[in-house]
Write a structure and sequence with these properties.
This is Putative hydrolase MhqD. By secondary structure, the chain is α/β, with parallel strands linked by helices. The protein contains 5 helices and 11 strands, in the order ββαβββββαβαββαβα. Helix content is about 30%, strand content about 20%.
Length: about 210
């Protein structure tokens, strides 16, 4: 399994008792892009930040797309399985409790985080999805997401992750049993800095730390 860990990633250990974060970048990013979020969400959390292995015009992504906004769902499923296998190896190498990750994904990273939760719900405890679209055009595979928490933060002016995407994705998570929260902002396809304290509070509350919530 150790060969799987040759995939580019950054591991930063944290303090015992702080649940680990899985950081998943957007198109054209890499494993370093979202590392600053740790200081805003939980500075003591262990962090695993992973690079997408698919290239689109030289830009890393987590799965292929057929056109802008049109996902290659066959490749998406392949890449989700590969990411799930990588997480198993990372849990063993870095001594992380199985399935304890909270994914924090932006754009393409948010989309694979959603797909990972629907296909391999045992690998995640929750997710913060930033500028997230709907990964499966005809709906996700049947999943029981009871006990998992999801926060979706999309921009009201986002031309890609539209209001329809947001409401559909939220409905899909809620229908699968996930406790789902929305944190909209007035911007576009971006992360809203003003909402980071709310996300930190949501994360602390999710893991039973009312002093940080």
């Amino acid at each position: 399994m150790t060969d799987i860990l040759t995939r580019p990633h950054v591991w930063r250990p944290g303090t015992a008792g702080h649940p680990p974060l899985l950081l998943l970048h957007g198109t054209g990013g890499d494993e370093h892009d979202l590392l600053p979020l740790r200081e805003h969400l939980d500075a003591a959390a262990p962090v695993l930040s992973v690079r997408g292995t698919v290239l689109e015009n030289g830009m890393p992504r987590f799965f292929r797309r057929l056109a802008e906004g049109v996902f290659d769902e066959d490749d998406l499923r392949i890449q989700v399985d590969a990411l799930a296998e990588f997480l198993l190896a990372a849990e063993d190498r870095y001594e992380v409790a199985a399935g304890s990750w909270t994914a924090v994904g932006f754009s393409n990273g948010a989309n694979i985080a959603s797909a990972l939760m629907f296909i391999h719900p045992e690998r995640l405890s929750g997710a913060i999805l930033l500028a997230a679209m709907v990964p499966f055009r005809d709906g996700p595979p049947p999943s029981d997401l009871s006990g998992r928490r999801v926060l979706v933060s999309n921009g009201r002016q986002d031309p890609m992750a539209t209001a329809v995407h947001t409401s559909t994705l939220v409905d899909q998570f809620r229908s699968a049993g996930a406790e789902t929260t929305t944190a909209p902002h007035t911007g576009g396809h971006t992360i809203a800095p003003s909402l980071l304290p709310r996300m930190a509070g949501w994360l602390a509350e999710a893991h039973g730390d009312p002093q940080q919530a």
